[in-house]
Amino acid sequence: MANKTIKGKQCTIIWHVDDLKILHADKDVVENILEQFATKFGQDAPLKTSRVKVLDYLDIKIDYCRKGRVMFSMEEYIKKYWRKRHITWRA
């Protein structure tokens, strides 16, 4: 994970192997970073980007649907884990 203040706000880049998550309050900052990555690393194959309200990232559901809030859930991952071990899910 890397943090840097850009335009007075924190920019965070999280990576795991070849997956990246770029966060900043100003979407133009994110676009600029994506352009820089595409220029440097997108020569052989274009970078795949996603701008969705609900993202599945490494089996973590990240939900941006409510303004000013982010919800994280691993419920589906846990259910999958329990199913593999033949454990019944009950709420």
What share of residues is helical?
Answer: 25-40%
Ends apart, CA distance between termini: 34 Å
Question: What is the overall shape?
Answer: extended
Low-confidence blocks of residues: none
Mind describing the biggest β-sheet?
3 strands, antiparallel
Mean pLDDT, nearest integer?
A: 90
**Counted beta strands:** 6
With strands numbered from the N-terminus, the spatial order across the biggest sheet is 1-2-3
Count up the domains: 2
Radius of gyration using CA atoms only: 17 Å
Percent of residues in beta strands? Answer: 25-35%
Structural class: alpha+beta
SSE order, as H and E?
EEEHEEEH
What does this protein structure show overall?
The chain folds into two domains: 1-50, no CATH class; 52-91, no CATH class. It has two helices and six strands; from the N terminus they run E-E-E-H-E-E-E-H. It has helices spanning 27-41, 75-84, and strands spanning 2-6, 9-16, 19-23, 54-57, 60-63, 71-73. It has a three-stranded antiparallel β-sheet with strand order 1-2-3, covered by helices on one side. The radius of gyration is 17 Å and the shape is extended. 0% of the residues are buried. The mean pLDDT is 90.
Topology:
Layout: E1 2-6, E2 9-16, E3 19-23, H1 27-41, E4 54-57, E5 60-63, E6 71-73, H2 75-84
Antiparallel strand pairs: 1-2, 2-3, 4-5, 5-6
Task: Tag the structure with descriptive keywords.
single chain, 91 residues, alpha+beta, 2 domains, three-stranded antiparallel β-sheet
